[in-house]
Structure formats: C-alpha cells, structure tokens
Amino acid sequence: MIGKCVDDVKFSVGLWAFGACADRFCTTGYRERLSLEDRMKLASSVEEISAVEVAYPRDLQGMTIDDMKGLLDRFGLSVSMVCVDVQTDPRWKFGSVTSRDPSIRQAALGTIKEAMDVAVALKTMKVNFWPGQDGYDYPFQSDYLSSWRMITEGLRDISTYNRNVKICIEYKAKEPRTHLLIGSIGKAIMLTEAVGTENIGVTVDVGHSLMMYENVAESVALASSKGRLFHIHLNDNYRDWDHDMIAGSVHFWEFLELLLWLRVVGYHGWYSLDIFPYREDPVLACQESIDNMKWLMEIIEAVGVQDLIAAVREGRFREAYARVRRVMKS
C-alpha cells in the first residue's frame, strides 16, 4: 500500500538546532545560548514545522510540565518525541545502561523511565534512546557479551514500564566513543528482536546510516519489514562523520529513493530534522531542509510513485533515472 503524499507529511525539529552549537574547537558555541522559550519561538517561525523534539532532562530543568505545555501552546507546537539524555553528563562516560557500576546503570534506566512519563504528559508517547556512551574505545576494553546482555535486559525492563510508550533506538557507528554498541541497522533490529516487546523500535537517522555506508532506503525497508520503524531523523553528511548538515544538501539520489520507500512502506510518523547548523542561520537551515524534502517529494509525485516502484521491482533502474530527469527538465 502506498503511503501519504507530500501535503500530508508532518515536519518537526530537534530544539538543539537553535542552540549555541558548540564543538571541541569552539566550546562556548558559535552562537548565543538561547532560552528554551527563544528556541521554541525560532522553531515556530519555520514554515511547516508543527512540532519539536525536546531533550530530557536538559530542556525541562527549572520548569514544570505545565510550564512546558504553556510554552508549546504559546507557539502553536506539539512534541514529536522526548529524547532522553544519557550522554552529556560525565557520569555516563563509561556507559549508561551498560555501565559496570550497578548504581549508574540503575540511574540511567530511571532517567529513561522518567522521560517516558514526560512523553505521556506531553502526549507524544515516544522516547528516543541514543546509547551514545554505550560502547568502547580500545581493544580489550569491552566485555561484548555482557554489554549486550545488559542493554537487552535494560530495554526489556524499560519497555514493560509502560507498554503504551514507544522506545526508539537510535543507532550510530561512533562518536563520542570510537565504537558504539548499536552501530548499524542490523544491530538495531537485532536488539529490538532480542528485547521482544512491541513498543521497542528504531529511529533511522539519515546521517548515521550514511556513516555506516548503508543505503538509507534499505535500512528503512528492513526496519519496516519487522514493524520496527518508529521515527526518522533527517540530515546529511559526506559519510565520513556525523556533520548533521542541511537535509538533502549532499545526497540527492539517496534522499529521493529514501522518500520513495517511506511512501512504499506506509510510514506515517514525523519527518524530523536533526541538524546542527554551526555557522548557518538555524531558521534558514531548517527551512532549506524542509524545502529540499518537499521538492524531492514533488519530483516523486510528478514521476509517479507506482511507476517508480514498478521500475524498481522489475529491475528497470535506468528507466527510473530517466523518468526523474525528464521531470526535472520539464
């Protein structure tokens, strides 16, 4: 069954796009650090953005859920997902849910459960878990089997805490560790199958998939085939690093195929921008990302979804290219 058309697509953005955007060379950030209110205001100024991803606990520090709801209402926004932060505090430096220290491991699991409660209160019912510190840097540093057991058991515990909240596993090959435990679509799907609960799925981040030299469309198709495609993060890079660039700025053909397959598998979730515009105006960078996505979707519509997928399934890939070129020339 073919999914939604371009007019029905919902766009959201992670609020970090409007932050200071620090890196290890400019640790204070390339822009002024803005309040949550100011970042929401900027997000609401982007055409087509109707929701934001918020980070827990960082974005809710010093405020209540009602305070957050008030800000969202003021700017006409909803929450597409709550992203749990078990990466940026130094206590997670040797892992969160796979820490050898039981107290740290329990603190991580508790933080994720708190994020699930926030997701319920903000009516999104989705939590993103990126195990960014769960991995290793050197040979002989990790007990791979023990780590796998801990993350599997931990996620099973989390998922049964509230089966109505979807837990989205965001995989990535590296950074901040040299090797992250869940680095590929294969490992992510394997983990969801090992956990076994219906509310454990995958966030496919385009940049993370590109870094693994995956075909992002294939990753989406595989996750969907298992009923595990829960969320999409849109950005771009040169496959060497997670640059979080303007979506569609580098990989034209790959994005075109990705958007086609999101239609084919019937993805109805948010199309969420996860960009980090260090030196660009964040509002313009978000707008350019959305304009790129809508343009590519319009190309697919003009060529014809059924015709494109028929060409794919019958091995007529050159015809697919030719059809796209004809539309772009017209």
Features:
single chain, 330 residues, alpha/beta, TIM Barrel, eight-stranded parallel barrel, two-stranded antiparallel ribbon, 10 strands, globular
Describe, in short, the structure shown:
This protein has 330 residues and is an alpha/beta fold. 43% of the residues lie in helices and 14% in strands.
Can you describe what's shown?
- The protein has helices at residues 36-44, 65-74, 102-121, 144-161, 185-195, 206-211, 216-225, 252-264, 282-303, 305-313, 317-329, and strands at residues 11-14, 49-56, 78-84, 126-129, 135-136, 166-170, 179-180, 200-205, 229-234, 271-273.
- It is globular.
- 45% of the residues are buried.
- The strands form 2 sheets. The protein has an 8-stranded parallel barrel, surrounded by 6 helices.
- The mean pLDDT is 97.
- The chain has one domain (7-298): Divalent-metal-dependent TIM barrel enzymes (TIM Barrel, Alpha-Beta Barrel).
- With 330 residues, the protein is α/β, with parallel strands linked by helices.
- α7 packs parallel to α8, α9 (282-303) packs across α11 and α10 (305-313) runs antiparallel to α11.
